[in-house]
Amino acid sequence: MKHPTPNAAPDAAPAPDAKSAARRPIPPQFGMDQALWAAWLYYEDGLKQDHIAEQMGISRASVFNLLQKARDEGIVTIAIDPTRIARADLALRLSAATGLSECFVLPAGNSTASLHEQIGHLGARVLENRLGETEVIGVAWGRTVMRLSQLLTPMQRPNVTVAQITGSSAATFDFSPVLCTSNIAERLNARCVNLHAPGVVSTPAVKDILMAEPSIHQHFDLLRQCTMTVFGVTHLIGPTLLVQGGFMSQAEMQVYIDKGAIGFASGHFFDIAGNPVRSEFDDRHITMSHDELLNVPRRICVGGGLPKVGAICGMLRNRLANVLVTDEATAHAVLAEYAKG
Amino acid sequence: MKHPTPNAAPDAAPAPDAKSAARRPIPPQFGMDQALWAAWLYYEDGLKQDHIAEQMGISRASVFNLLQKARDEGIVTIAIDPTRIARADLALRLSAATGLSECFVLPAGNSTASLHEQIGHLGARVLENRLGETEVIGVAWGRTVMRLSQLLTPMQRPNVTVAQITGSSAATFDFSPVLCTSNIAERLNARCVNLHAPGVVSTPAVKDILMAEPSIHQHFDLLRQCTMTVFGVTHLIGPTLLVQGGFMSQAEMQVYIDKGAIGFASGHFFDIAGNPVRSEFDDRHITMSHDELLNVPRRICVGGGLPKVGAICGMLRNRLANVLVTDEATAHAVLAEYAKG
DNA sequence: AGTCATCACTGGCACATGTCAATGACGTTT
DNA sequence: AAACGTCATTGACATGTGCCAGTGATGACT
Q1: Is the pTM of this model over 0.85?
Q2: Do B88 and A44 touch (CB under 8 A)?
Q3: Do residue A31 and residue B88 have CB atoms under 8 angstroms apart?
Q4: A17, B22, B35, B133: most buried by Cβ count inside 10 Å?
């Protein structure tokens, strides 16, 4: 009889309601969200939920719900300064050895969550922290990137553009380029620009035709303005997702492997020494070019797991990333690999 | 026998310590601050303090202490998105009426804290949120600015410069220009540039000489690069702090009042219509010029209280501020004043 | 060497918070 | 118009947190 929004019209407003004692002595009509008010009183004024409930004329449980809503919606942000994590000496040593400009290493907690989950989590924090008012973010795809997108704190970034780096795969991943991109844009309340083209086409000629298409061409113009890219990294050993997911055939993959490729990231293959590995597949793959990628100032790679160590080393030597988010075990292994040669 | 830092050398390391059950199964040696680790597990992984204590091999109370340290030191930041507060319709209407680019209105809680305290608090949040990696912040002085400086969250901003807008007053305020400036710089871990000159000198000639002095000249060159200014606002009615604090004499003040001045902010007087009010005092006052101030992109004024309403209106019309942080009652009053004429 | 001050850590209690099933209002369907 | 589903809200209970005084270790001073 008091709560259902401040439109107190229905119940005779001036009615000297029985136990009205402390009932909304200040019917706030705050013009602002109740959750915001509660959050302010709780987090900034340090009041207890009891007091807030009393002041707002609602139950304490409702205050709790409002606070939770405030956290969920990003009205209140609880953030750990990721630069502190980078400072951890492991990260520092890794940066020094590889030439990364920044490196974030996940503490080796006993967390039960999957590695993708955990690295995506840390990656989300890093992305948020590195995010300016105005950005153009190029997004590739992958399981970790997908988790990252889901773990971003909702925020208002109307001047940020999130663009898809690579064509939409025909395959049905649950972490497709389209999903990764739109998820991130949604969380940031940013402009979402999908690439309305297949990821791989049948002949180079088709690629040429598509690339000449104004709408596609325009998209790649946008990509050249990227201020950051976000992507995962894949190794090629065993039954990889690239083949399993239907992104490419085993035969196509084998060509790269035969040429010495060890990994794949943001649309390009490379060997363990960091040299690009190319094949005719590249001429049919619709994605941002290698040179263009290297022109992006901040290139964030999220990924870890021991099988990926070789791929990560190759990618780092290839310079595709200058920011790496990974886990402790992988960081150690990469460091060892670099020490080796 | 376990806690005093991880240099576990003293107690025979391999000793099969009696109740060693869960004793630091992972003596982390994290290379990183324990507080950081605890904060990560608590705020990001959502573990309970009990679990964390177990994992880290310390008592729960210590975990609590670590978390508090993490909050105190700014490792963990809990922030309310101030843009939401700006969105509150009162703030919106005020922005629309006055031409402010942003406006933040303090919720009218029943807080017992002083108005300076509360507005300083909100101002601190606004400043933090608007702070880029690289800034030059010009700081004036006042009680509210002082509170703001004390309520800033500690953070690392090595590329920020905090510069004093106005000469150091001979008077002994507990909120002098020097203190306001150095406090803010300290909190931000930014470069602090004080103005080593008196605020008011005896004759215009002395001012001219000082202004020609290389070190002073250089300071004003720096001030011209300000990306934001932070200041309070004073009314001139009754025994004002300007006179009481010994900043200027009652006679000097009276000249301004006789000319119609109603307020004073960031070193300049103005009337209720927003016209600058000048006197010979200005020629002896060592401070950033009015024109230079108006060239600063973001000009944040913190202040409220009904006696200041006239002064705030004048200041807004004078354009000295384009961002205002105030309380609800004052906001209403200012809005009413604008509606009037 | 002995004494004292300081500091970090902890046990345990009082209190604050998180959770959940029950409640009642409202809108929708038959 | 009655029956139903949905949703926000709540009271009461189970946990988790905040705090303080007590303890032992360390280092400084006499």
Answers
A1: no
A2: no
A3: yes
A4: B35
